[in-house]
Design goal:
Largest sheet: 6 strands, parallel
Number of helices: 10
Bound molecules: NADP nicotinamide-adenine-dinucleotide phosphate
Number of domains: 2
CATH superfamily of the largest domain: NAD(P)-binding Rossmann-like Domain
Strand content: 15-25%
CATH architecture of the largest domain: 3-Layer(aba) Sandwich
Strand order of the largest sheet: 3-2-1-4-5-6
Radius of gyration: 20 Å
CATH class of the largest domain: Alpha Beta
Shape: globular
CATH topology of the largest domain: Rossmann fold
Structural class: alpha/beta
Amino acid sequence: MVKVAVAGGSGQVAREVVDALVATGKHEITIFSRGPAPTAASVSGVQWQAVDYSDKGALVEALRGTHTVLSFIQLLSDPNQTAQKNLIDAAISAGVKRFAPSEYGSRGLDNMAWWEGKQKVREYLEEVNRNQTAIEYTLFQPGLFLDYLAFPYKTAKYLDPLQCVFDFKNRRAITVDGHEDAIMTLTTAADMAAIIAKAVGCDGKWPTNGGICGNRVSVAQILEIGHRVRGRPFVVEKVKSEDLEVGELKTSWCLEAVHQAVPDDQAQALLKAVCIGTLLSSSKGAWESSDEINKLCPEYEFTSAESFLSRVWDDKP
Ligand SMILES: NC(=O)c1ccc[n+]([C@@H]2O[C@H](COP(=O)([O-])OP(=O)(O)OC[C@H]3O[C@@H](n4cnc5c(N)ncnc54)[C@H](OP(=O)(O)O)[C@@H]3O)[C@@H](O)[C@H]2O)c1
């Protein structure tokens, strides 16, 4: 049993992990939130701690006795990542053993300005650990949530559907010309949550690179799966990397569904940027996760992309 604090634990991805931690029946879990505990829908066995991320002293007190901190803090609303940096400082002062920053995405971050906060926190963790290990940490990286290939259908308990460049509903996709062999890691939110819960229970040292590899597939293989589960080939629009590099997206369609954390006035610009950034970064291998966490929990069986997508799309028009 370890005492786990889940910062930003009220969020969508965090709640998947909190449920998986609860399901182990092994840990003492506290959600850190800037707000008061909800009156309804509280999870049994989970404590709620209202925190002010600008008050380091109070954070240290709140973290006393905590073994592991998992952060799911939304990066977009905190451009300097002050909340996560203060949380790291407080965790070190309180003697926390392990820390996981708000990652849960791609290994590489180039071309994805909306995730530059992740890079800032990676650099901060390197800095605080430069001379000696101040805190053990891992960057949990499951790649893209496989659930997003089920858009607009919801396949996870809390994670909302989000559109991506593989549009299974309309049997279409956008790819980068000449980069069909680029590898993408696709992992269901449920698998990511379950294996993180297992990693929390592991005694050994956490690896810094926390690659989680549910499925390792090329862009071409995703299109082949799409063909099989949707019954006919996708209409593929191929774009040139040179165009993407200068911010041009020459396609007949773009992403339309935006993450709930994005303000309305920024949605259109961000959707185009996310489309361009995801395409460019994937063509450069940023979405190919490693498998350090798989190795930590070798008995864990991941959901295969083809069986998951076959199930989702089996009865859909
Ligand atoms: N791989 C993928 O495909 C993928 C997809 C989605 C998300 N992700 C990653 O998963 C992580 C969590 O994302 P999410 O969508 O679950 O996040 P979210 O629900 O938008 O936000 C998580 C929590 O962050 C807290 N928060 C928001 N603004 C804050 C601020 N300024 N300071 C401190 N806390 C703040 C909020 O908690 P309180 O209000 O309770 O304090 C919120 O519930 C992120 O790192 C994201 O990049 C990855």
